[in-house]
Amino acid sequence: MRMSSRRRVLMAVAVAGAAGLALAGCAESSGGGAASSGTTTVQISGGITGGEADALNESFTQFTADTGIKVVYTGDKSFEGNIVTKVTGGSAPDIAIVPQPGLLKTLIDTGQVQKGSSATEANVDNYWSTAWKTYGSSGGTFYAAPMLANVKGFVWYSPKQFKQWGVSVPTTWDELMTLTQTIQQKTGAAPWCAGFASDAASGWPGTDWIEDLVLRQSGPDVYDQWVAGTVKFTDPPIKQAFDTLSTILLNPQYVNAGFGDVKSINSTAFGDVAAKVADGTCPLTHQASFLSANFLEVNTASGQPPVVAPDGDVYAFLLPSIKASDPKYVEVGGEFVAAFSNDPNVQKVVEYMSTPAFADARVKLGGVISANNGADPSLASSQFLVDAMKLVQNPDTVIRFDASDLMPATVGSGSFWKGMVNWIDGKPTADVLAEIQAGYNN
């Protein structure tokens, strides 16, 4: 769905008791502690891996104790490339956690995704904005509840290093470029690091960069038209974003701190930048709020994970607007819970995943946030994540969903991802843009 230029996503902070009420309601609807007839083990698949996958499995501990339904989540690093084949081949999981509305639409078009139950839809109506529900719908029919949320467009840095260098957080794009030049001059090394490697999904971190720049340089109306396909990749606003990004990511003086040259961006795993920021090797990296989860898996010289705080080891600021007078532009992402079975216990799991109780269970395990307006932001594992939740709750924030996630899968998770990889490898911008646009014909 395209949001108008004046539309805002406002996610209000719920009162402290809301999560507890939601948990009670979920337990009651789940049969008071015993699984109803149906499968007793529900299989979930998605692209979430590593420590985040472990935390996701742990999020169901209380649910299993209350209902007797065991939930097993299995992460697949090539999920986006495999799930359609599995579904059309008759080997769909009970539930899939789908990270792109465009891919969700493709799955719905197979006819295998089950319509959302009335109980799940009621939860979404209660706890999520209309926009989020629309992203999980197709043709006016509700299919998939949103799960977690993330804020794109943060620049991660070391507050201690900034203090040492005598620099401050920039408020405009020009100030960001001045900061970049200052760090390069003070250190004699590249100020930025980036990683585009993500198995079958390689390239997506580059699309986040472009989307942030299109939103800031050309505004929300052009962004919406780009998502809708009326502004093409070959049109001037998109080329302008690529040209601007080239001043950082294609500049050998500015990348790739801690990893190598420009082309090393494609061989660097997106999560690996966290360790380089934590140890001071990489002064700046552009990545979403979920990078905070990667810091939980990094140890500093003290043997502990870095402190994520304004005066800590690492923190992040929102990628600046072009002018100081511009509003705060925020690109968001999130996942959607699609069921391929009407088994009653599968549906109970889907219902639970749309409640504040699930959101709170996952958020308090660390590294993530939720846009569920019944969730308690004080449970977030760092001040940064609390701030990120407040950011998306602010009515003055101009929010747009990740453009590549809204585009048809042949483009958003296809030619756009591939195009970013080719661009880093040195293919001319005009050729890359033409090839990405050709994805609409596939």
In the CATH hierarchy, the third-tier topology of the largest domain is known as D-Maltodextrin-Binding Protein, domain 2
What gap, in angstroms, lies between the N and C termini?
A: 22 Å
State the name of the first-level CATH class of the largest domain.
Answer: Alpha Beta
Helix content: 40-55%
Q: Topology, pairings included?
A:
Elements lengths: L17 H12 L11 E6 L3 H9 L2 H7 L2 E6 L3 H10 L6 E4 L2 H9 L8 H10 L2 H6 L1 E2 L2 E2 L2 E7 L2 E4 L1 H7 L7 H15 L16 H25 L7 H14 L23 H6 L6 E3 L3 H5 L19 E4 L10 E11 L4 H9 L3 H8 L19 H11 L4 E4 L1 H4 L2 H16 L4 H9 L5
Parallel strand pairs: 1-2, 1-3, 10-11
Antiparallel strand pairs: 3-10, 4-5, 6-10, 7-8, 7-9
Helix pairs in contact: 1-15, 6-14, 10-11, 10-18, 18-19
Model description:
The chain has helices spanning 18-29, 50-58, 61-67, 79-88, 101-109, 118-127, 130-135, 159-165, 173-187, 204-228, 236-249, 273-278, 291-295, 344-352, 356-363, 383-393, 403-406, 409-424, 429-437, and strands at 41-46, 70-75, 95-98, 137-138, 141-142, 145-151, 154-157, 285-287, 315-318, 329-339, 398-401. The protein is an alpha/beta fold and 442 residues long. Strands 1, 2, 3, 6, 10 and 11 form a six-stranded mixed β-sheet that branches. Helix 6 (118-127) runs parallel beside helix 14 (344-352) and helix 10 (204-228) crosses helix 18. The longest helix is centred in the middle third of the chain and has 25 residues, at 204-228. The chain starts with 17 loop residues before the first helix and ends in a 5-residue tail after the last helix.
